[in-house]
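Researcher: I'd like a structural prediction for the single chain below. Treat it as a standalone chain; there are no partners to consider.
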Amino acid sequence: METAEITATAGPAVPEEEGSQEPPPQRDGREPVLVEPDLEFIRVMSRTGGDSLKMCFQCGTCSATCPLAPDDHPFPRKEMAWAVWGMKDRLMADPDVWLCHHCNDCSTNCPRGARPGDVLGAVRQQAIIHYALPRFLARWVGNPRYIPLLLAIPAILLWLAIAFRDEVGNALGFRVPTGEEIVYSFTPLLPHWLLNSFFGLFGTLAVLAAVVGIWRFARALQRSDAWGEDAKPVRGLGASMVSVLAKIITHRNFTFCETDHRRSISHFGVFFGFLALTLVTSWIITGPVNPLIPGDFIYPFSFWSPWKILANLGGLAIFTGLLMMIWDRLYFGHLAGTSSYFDWFLVWTLFLVVASGFATEFLHYLRMGPHRHVAYFCHLVLVFGLLIYLPYSKLAHLLYRTTAMVFAERYGRIVGEPTKEGGAEE
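Model: Treating it as a single chain, here is the predicted structure.
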């Protein structure tokens, strides 16, 4: 492991004066720190999107052009220096990595073509792996070699649920239907109670894994030196959460982008489409015990059911947003940023979930069997993968970025509100 000295602001190492025992103090009063470069981290960064990392020569153009960087020690200049030096621990606890929304203004204005936006994207992927539990799942999700295994796991589990549904139903006290006398279901092999039990069990495990990861991340943020010495909150936790929620709903930070304005539209469609499908799914899961539902709960919904209409509109919104994302990434990569496998994994997973959902609905109304059964099974496998792998895929950005934004609001590290005197970093 190589070592070197570098200042806390990521400037060059300061040589010791002849005869002195300690490096001289810096002009800004900050002390040098000892750097132990993580060479493996540098190699991983180069493979996962930070291949232009060493082209940075610390001119500061990226920080000057970023519309989201705070005035006090703005990003991403310092993050580029830390990444070059392999300062993994500092980057893993850096909230600024997540305040970046990858608008790519920094990359398109970089005179050296260093693409800081892609570098920060690679850092975020490594942060998800770093805090994940279990960590190997995050590594699998980020590696294309494991796609067959990631698909096989939910397929096998779902097949086992079908194979033992009678035994499980009897053990839990459910009456297992043997036909389709009341409702023409997607498939009688997967009754409503079985799907609720199956996804409820593994969904709970995924939520616990996500909570552990975010808890680890929050502890690291709490100890981060990004807030300055003796930092104290400037806003209450509740007020910070409300402010962040408003920014997420309105996609306010995406609208600051000058390089690619379409990003806000595509993300808007995917976000609200996903929200609509989540709402419908919650209604379905709670259907049998939901006091707001009069009479017997009947699923699947009819085509003209308000819930079916909302689900179809949500699916169309996601589909449209994803098509815009794919188009931008394929034909406007210089503006949208370099797309890593980690990015494409989420894009195509969402795309296949929506496509298989519409295929299942279409075949269901045509009463085409066994095609509808196969389509429904594939759809459930993809949905399982999307939800269960959420803590390990790029979809985890929703959790990590929200956490970092809440901390930034709480400690005043937001645009136009520096945490302490001194202004922008030189």
